[in-house]
Write a structure and sequence with these properties.
The complex is a heterodimer of chains A (about 120) and B (about 350). Chain A has four helices and nine strands. In chain A, the strands form two sheets. Chain A has a six-stranded antiparallel beta sheet with strand order 1-2-3-9-8-5. A three-stranded antiparallel beta sheet of chain A has the order 4-6-7. Chain A has a single domain, classed as RNA polymerase II/Efflux pump adaptor protein, barrel-sandwich hybrid domain (OB fold (Dihydrolipoamide Acetyltransferase, E2P), Beta Barrel). The radius of gyration of chain A is 13 Å and the shape is globular. Chain A has about 120 residues and is of the alpha+beta class. The N and C termini of chain A lie close together (about 10 Å). Chain B has about 350 residues and is an alpha+beta fold. Chain B folds into two domains: about 220 residues, 2-Layer Sandwich (Gyrase A, domain 2); about 80 residues, Beta Barrel (Elongation Factor Tu (Ef-tu), domain 3), CATH 2.40.30.110. Chain B contains seven helices and 19 strands. In chain B, the strands form four sheets. Chain B has a six-stranded mixed beta sheet with strand order 10-11-12-9-3-13. In chain B, a hairpin with a 2-residue loop joins strand 6 and strand 7. The radius of gyration of chain B is 20 Å and the shape is globular. The two termini of chain B are about 30 Å apart. Classes of the chains: A alpha+beta (about 120), B alpha+beta (about 350). At the A-B interface, strand 4 and strand 6 of A face helix 1 of B.
Chain lengths: ~120, ~350
């Protein structure tokens, strides 16, 4: 499984990429692989304030609907509208064009998240 | 791998969508070794099955099979199963893994000149499904000159495949042409590999539980534990056709289902289709007509073939006509849907 070193991770399989006070959130390679082909996404509206660990989105494959949790507290800035017409991007580019939403974290340095090495250690080998 | 009725089963091999598509367009191979195979033999076998099963086993000629039910006193479904008649006093029951032990206990109460054999884990089974299945089976039985032709739909025949005796029934759970293979447990791995190797050039893929579920639902087939249960009768599930009341034959649950067949059931199973771009219907979502909650979705999936959600729902009778607007509730929000025929892919 691909687990890039420059991202932070939640145990619930979301990643966070911090960039100039904003963060992009998506699901990990492991998560997209476990879900298999994503066919539908429900994303949060811009302006919504969320707590860390709050359900903010749903990703559905043929198999099941899976809740997505916000890795940090903050305000949603934008959702990835491209996913509505092409949800398969989550499978093809989980760390790139398959991002789910952009968030402005309340704390500049979020706590409780894992490094790539720590997250990898939580996955079944 | 996920736990399923005491077994670990693969959800997918190469990917659910690829497996689903392979089965619709070429062929898929499913490991159904978890399903119970119970052999009923002895001069009293037919009489024992006649008082237990809702479809009439006496209708079956040697080599034929049909879909049937084991019901409780209220007419609810303990198990839905396939019954094959192998000989005058020799039957094979293919039952759900989750009900296998319960079925055996119930069957074994019949002791008059009949024995029921087949405990969990004693056999292996595989389903070969899809438009290329007949071509693959033809190749598999090429060497068996004693029995050169394929079994017709709902028939079962014995072949020698890769040196093992295998029963092959022409049925399945996908809505495609196909076959189910039944054999002793130790032959399983070899037959699995042999079928996969033989079918490779035809586009055969091994398929997991995920594709099995999406394929069966597109075909409108019920899943025991969701669309059927001890609280749901075959009449409510829209499967009254498989309850045979022609002969004055007492069987478990007869009185209850006979009443429902004559005067109607309080609930009815309908097909529902969702809208592309809306969340797909899933098991246990409530169903509404206007402000009234009329029932619940028993099985639902985003259909890989159709590109929109499909579902079976159990609602208060009478059934609304096809095309009528309904809603189901997803994560606290109402989503539009329409009543449709339960054979979601149409007549095939």
């Amino acid at each position: 499984m691909n687990t890039p070193n420059d991202l932070l991770y939640a145990k619930s399989h979301e990643w966070l990429r911090l960039d100039q006070g904003k963060g992009y959130v998506g699901i990990t390679d492991h998560a997209q692989s476990a879900l298999s082909d994503v066919v539908f996404v429900e994303l949060p509206k811009a302006g919504r304030t969320v707590k860390a660990g709050e359900v903010v989105a749903t990703v559905e494959s043929v198999k099941a609907a899976s809740d997505i949790y916000s890795p940090v507290e903050g305000t949603i800035v934008e959702s990835n509208a491209t996913l509505t017409s092409d949800p398969g991007l989550i499978n093809r580019e989980p760390y790139g064009q398959g991002w789910l939403f952009k968030i402005e974290p309340t704390q500049p340095k979020p706590n409780g998240l894992l490094t790539a090495t720590e997250y990898s250690a939580t996955l079944p080998s | 791998m996920i736990p399923f009725a005491g077994w670990n089963l693969p959800v997918e091999y190469s990917g659910l969508l690829a497996e689903h598509k392979a089965t619709r367009q070429a062929a898929g191979l499913f490991d159904i070794s978890h399903m119970g195979q119970i052999r009923a033999t002895g001069p009293g076998a037919l009489a024992a099955l006649e008082v237990l099963l809702a479809n009439d086993p006496a209708k079956l000629k040697d080599g034929e099979g049909h879909y049937t039910f084991l019901l409780n006193d209220q007419g609810g479904v303990i198990d839905d199963l396939f019954l094959y008649r192998l000989g005058p006093s020799d039957f094979l029951l293919v039952v759900n893994a989750s009900r296998h032990v319960e079925d055996l206990a119930l069957l074994s109460k019949q002791k008059s000149n009949v024995s029921f054999v087949g405990s969990p884990g004693s056999t292996a089974g595989m389903a070969l499904q899809g438009p290329r299945a007949p071509a693959i089976l033809s190749k598999l039985i090429q060497g068996d000159l004693s029995n050169p032709s394929l079994p017709p739909r709902n028939h079962i025949r014995q072949y020698t495949i890769a040196g093992h005796l295998v029963l092959v029934g022409a049925t399945g759970y996908t809505g495609e042409e196909g076959y189910e293979f039944f054999m002793e447990r130790k032959a399983g791995p070899k037959i699995w590999d042999h079928i996969l190797a033989t079918g490779k050039s035809e586009g055969l893929l091994p398929c997991g539980l995920g594709a099995r579920d999406s394929l069966r639902l597109e075909a409108g087939f019920p899943l025991n534990g969701q669309d059927l249960s001890p609280e749901i009768t075959p009449v409510e599930a829209g499967l009254g056709f498989f309850v045979d009341l022609t002969r004055p034959r007492p069987f478990l649950g007869r009185t209850a289902v006979e009443t429902q067949k004559k005067s109607g059931a309080p609930r009815v199973c309908i097909g529902i289709k969702g809208v592309t771009g809306q969340p797909p219907p899933r098991h246990d979502y409530p169903v509404f007509r206007g402000d009234q909650r009329i029932g619940v979705i028993t099985s639902g999936v985003p259909s890989p073939t159709l590109g929109h959600g499909i579902a079976l729902a159990l609602i208060t009778a009478p059934a609304p006509p096809c095309g009528q607007d309904l809603e189901f509730e997803v994560r606290g929000r109402r989503v539009p849907a329409k009543v449709c025929h339960r054979k979601f892919l149409g007549k095939r």
